[in-house]
Each structure stands twice: as C-alpha cells, then as structure tokens.
Design goal:
The protein is an all-alpha fold. It is about 85% helix and about 0% strand. The longest helix has about 35 residues.
Amino acid sequence: MLVAAACWAISILGYAASAAPDEPQLSVAPIVGGGLVQWFWARHRSWPAGFAAGFAGAAVLFALVDTLRPELGRYVADALATGAAATVSVALLTLAGRVRERRHAAAR
C-alpha cells in the first residue's frame, strides 16, 4: 500500500511540476517505473510475477492515456494513467507473491 501511495504522489507532483512551465516532453512514468523496478529487485525477484506486473502496468498505462487524454487533457490524463498503472502493477506483484508464499508454506 505504501509503494502504491508513493507512486501516486510522485505521479501527481511530477505532472504538476511539468504542467507549471507547460513542458509536455517531461514524463514521470519512467521515474515511477524505475522506482517499481528497484522495489521489485530489492523485495520480490519472482520473475514470472515481475513480467506479468510489468506487462499489465504498461497495458493499463497506454489504454488509459489513450482513453483519458481527449477528455481530461495531457497532464491530468497522464498523472491518472501513471498512478493507475503503478497501482495495478503493485497489486499484481503483491498478489503473486502471496500466492507463491502460500504454495511454499503448503509444501512444507
């Protein structure tokens, strides 16, 4: 939960900072994604779960950006899409980790 909240905070603050000078080339998504990769590497290291979380997050990001931009504008849509994609990735990775822990506990 803390990781998802941090991703939302970085997303909102980053896009607010890039919207102030109206600099559309700056994107916070790589920063959030890089942070999630570091978290994955430090805590989880379940490669199937990591790949699934990465692909699901990317799919959510691109789908929401295309859907939300015409209605909300670039900065709001990108912030919401980045936060939602990070949340989906964290949730999927956490669920996969719990399933894996249960399997290991049942095998003992």
